[in-house]
Design goal:
Elements (H helix, E strand, L loop, with lengths): L1 E6 L2 E12 L2 E15 L10 E3 L2 H4 E12 L8 E3 L14 H5 L1 H10 L1 H7 L3 H4 L4 H18 L1
Antiparallel strand pairs: 1-2, 2-3, 3-4, 3-5, 5-6
């Protein structure tokens, strides 16, 4: 399951994911911010839109995961505040994220401009329609809930 919300040069992608890590498997919702672009030669809109890969256009990611194999409810909630050379880097843990994963994530997305700037994407921050982001927040929240 995957949901994609595009706000000009930035896409918010919410997916249901399973991540094998050695003998264990984590599963839950992944929320990513990635760069998006209109493919040259196409008109703006869905037909000519390309969401860049994590390697090319990753900005920020939150992983709202629990350990499912072996079966437990052990939380593995973490985030990646910025990408370096196309990689997410180390996991960052936050007690507020662990206490309320969807709420924490929505608070971050609620200050979308600051999130872009803090994550090293200030170059696209002035090209986002923040009224569109605000209007889409309930749908993004529902997508997160559906993927958990």
């Amino acid at each position: 399951m995957e949901y994609v919300f595009v706000f000009g040069p930035v896409a918010v992608i919410v997916t249901r994911c399973e991540v094998p890590i050695g003998p264990e498997t984590e599963a839950g919702a992944r929320v990513e911010l990635r760069r998006a672009e209109v493919v040259p030669g196409n008109r703006p809109g869905t037909e000519g839109l390309r969401v860049l890969s994590v390697t090319e256009g990753g900005i920020w990611r939150a992983d709202l995961l629990t350990l499912v194999d072996p079966p437990t409810d052990e939380p593995r909630y973490h985030y990646h505040p910025e990408y370096h050379s196309g990689d997410v880097g180390e996991r960052v843990f936050d007690p507020d994220l662990t206490a309320d994963p969807p709420g924490w994530t929505m608070r971050k997305l609620g200050d979308f401009r600051a999130l872009l700037v803090e994550s090293g994407a200030a170059d696209v921050a002035d090209r986002v329609d923040y009224d569109e982001v605000a209007a889409a927040l309930p749908a993004i929240s529902a997508a997160i809930d559906a993927c958990l």
